[in-house]
Amino acid sequence: MAGARGEFSSRFGFVMAAAGSAVGLGNIWGFPTQAASNGGAAFLLVYLVLAFGLAYPALMAELIIGRHAHANAARALGGLSPNRLLSGLGRGTGIIGLVVASLILSFYAIVAGWMIAFCLAAIAELLGLDAVADWLTGFGLARNLVFMLLFMALTIGIISEGVREGIERWSARLMPSLLFTLVVLAIYVLTLDGALEGLKVYLLPDFSAALTPGLIIAALGAAFFSLSLGVGTMLIYGSYVSDKENLPVLGGLVTLVDIGIAVLAGFLVLPAMYVALHNGVEIFAANGALLSEDTLIFTVLPELFATMGLPGMVVSVVFFFLMSIAALTSSISMLEVPVAYAIEEHGLSRRKGVVLIGGAIAAISTVILLDFGQLFGLVITVTTRYAQPLLGIVLCLYAGWVLNRNSLLMELQRGHPGAEHGLFWKIWPWYVRVVCPAVILAIFAQSVLG
């Protein structure tokens, strides 16, 4: 069944695809700025602990359910229980997940389009095409629509080629490019005046903030959402994993790559912010807090690059190219969630399903752009603040309580004979039953109640 649906051909291909799904714009700009606002290295330490204590077990829940069923999220969750009520709830959860993934992609494509536009604007400046650069960096419906559609076309083109030739092939190309670009940029920025101050903020912990509720909740949220959990992206990728693979090891590798890139991004973004401050670009608001993430990326850093002359233009091209890659590696996993459902439940060919669903998501993005002030923030809030945590809880409960314990052990033994004697089997089943749902619920409650 897996072979007919498509399957990752290698461990490297899967890790690059799954890590690419997890590594997105939030890792590159969100994590570093959260760290800067929450005690620097204190936030980093708490984040690392919680990433392995919460995000990794939740990731394993999705991977195990996905490979166990070798099916889309709705069929996978619906098939875990012979009980009609639980089966229906599972299918409903899978369908809601694919709707949420589609909505996330609808606003993500808009932001990703801005990244491509800013990358091209830097190239236009290098060529002396200032009028073109101004149009590319100006906020307007035409600019936003053109680059949203361009980004969706890239995503559709990759997904239409299938699991091996599309997702795996391009992830194996894009992720090493992302990592190389990130390292080169970080090394360069660290040589600039002011970078050391940013490095101190990032690496010297403010332990007085380490155990504050706000920091812990922020770190929990960052750890959970950085691995793209809750909407079925990791479940569908898990369904394409060979039965011969050791799932706990695969999940650990994905977690390490994702967290490593987020941490590495801190060595780029925080020093760059303080280089900007050194060059006279303001990075703090009137109340002393850091400017918002979008302001830092689309205003502060471009202003920094402008103060650096020709080298700054080159760095700007590379930086926004990096951001575009990060966006693309995430978008292909989001589109695959509803596409897999359309193929398996409604018999559509892959190309037809990709075009229809990708076109529908682009239409939703267009509607958002037409009423940007009202809809953009609303869609982000509904999907990431409310839907993702609730879906994450249900996935953990299904892995821990609904999936038969013997079936669970047999799934782990497929790629790891003797799994019943390992530390993972001794800890994970009860941990994902009790600890993960409780902690994710705490994040959700804090997010809603403040």
Automatic annotation (TrEMBL):
One of its GO terms (cellular component) is membrane. It is a multi-pass membrane protein. SUPFAM superfamilies: SNF-like. It is found in: Membrane. InterPro entries: Na/ntran_symport, SNS_sf, YocR/YhdH-like. Keywords: Membrane, Transmembrane, Transmembrane helix, Transport. It comes from the Bacteria. The chain crosses the membrane at residues 12-31, 43-65, 94-123, 135-159, 171-190, 210-237, 249-274, 317-343, 355-380, 386-404, 430-449. It holds the Pfam family SNF. This is Sodium-dependent transporter. It comes from Mangrovimicrobium sediminis.
